[in-house]
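Why Periplasmic copper-binding protein NosD beta helix domain-containing protein? Reviewers of the renewal asked for a concrete example.
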Amino acid sequence: MRFTPLLCLLAATTFAADVTPVTVDAARFPNLQAAFDSVPLSGGIVMLPPGKFEITEPLRIHTEDTRIVGAGAATCIINKNEEGKPALILRPPTLDQDKKAKLWRIQLADFRIQGQEKSGDGIFAESIQEIYLSGMSVDHHGGHGVQLLDCFEDPRINGCIFTYNKKCGIEIINCHDIVVNANHFEENQDALHCTDSFNLCMNGNNVDDHLRHGVVIENTYGSVVSGNMIEECNGTAVILDRDCYGITLSANVIAHHLEGGIDLRDAHGCSISANTFTIAHKFSVRISADSGRNTLSGNNFCNTHIGAAQDKRPAEGKTPMSIDEGTGILLEGPSHCTLSANTFSGLSSAAIWSTKPCKGMMITQNLATDCGRKLSEGQGWFVMETDKSSLVKDNLESR
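Here is what the prediction returned.
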C-alpha cells in the first residue's frame, strides 16, 4: 500500500503494553504517531512508506530497542510547526518525574526530515543511550539538525546529510564515546558542536560552505578529529575552547576559510599534525595565551601554488573567497609548545609570528619559502617574542 497523503499528526497519550518485539507497517495506521505508539515496550521495527507527511506537533518515539526505517528520501516528514518545536522527539516518557530515566538503542535510518525557519530541531534526543542515526537527510530547520542531550553512552551518527539548518548540523551535549563518521554537512550555521563531553571520534566527514564555523569543541577531552575535508567557512574551521585537553587533530584538509583554520582558544596537551592548510585568510593556526603544552608538527601551510611560478587563484578578486591566500601560525602568548618540521609556502603572512610574549617554546626545523607576500620588504618570516627558556633554531627561510 503506497501511503502518500499529507497528514497532520497528533501526539499520542497512551503507550502499548510490553509484549514480544514487533514489526510495524506504518502504512496501516491513520498517522505516523499512531504507528510509533503501537510499538510495545519491548521494542520493534517501524517501516515508513514513501510519501510526504506534514506535521504541526512533534512526533514522539518513547520505546527502546526500536528502529524506524524509511524508504530513503522518498519518505519525507515535513515540520510545519512555527513555535520552534522539533520534528522528532526521542525521550523517556518518565524523564520529568525521574531524572535518571533512560531509553536504550533507538535507531533512525533512511528517511528525510525537512523543516523551515520557524521550526525547531530536526531530531531532539535526550537521555537515549546507544542512539544510532544512519542514512538520514535532515535539512532546513530553524534549530539544529540533530541535538543530542545527555545521550551519554555511545552515540553513533554515520552516512547522514545535514544541510541548511539555522543552527548546527549536529549539537552534542554531555555525551561520550561518540562516533560521527562519513557524513555531509552543508550550509548550516556551524557544522558540529561538541560540548561537555569526551571521546569524540569524528572521521571522514565532508564539511562545506558554513555560515559561521565548522567544528567547535568545548570542555571536551580525549578526542580525535581526522581525515575530514573542511572547506569554506565564513568563520573558522576548527575551534577548541573551554578547557579542552588531550585532543588530536590530524590529516584534515582545511581549505578556504575567511577567518582561520584551527583556533586553540583554550586547549592543552593537543596534537596538530599532518594537516593541510590552504587559503586561510587571517591565520591557519592560532594559539592563545590560554593554551599550552601543544605540539604542531608535519603540517603544510600553503596558498594555491601549482608549480611553474603559477597560482591557481588571482592575487585580487571581487570577493575574499575568490582570491589566492595563505597564512601561517599566529602565537598570542602560549607556553610550552613544540612547533617543528612544518612547511610554509606562498603565504601572505609570516610563517610563524607572535603578538604577545611566548614562554618555553621549541620552534625548530621548519621550512619557509615564498612567504611574507603582503609584508614589508625585508621582514622576517619567523618573528616571535620568546623568553630565555625557549629554543628557536634551525628554521630555514628559503628566499
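The radius of gyration is 24 Å. This is the kind of structural detail the renewal will allow us to pursue systematically.
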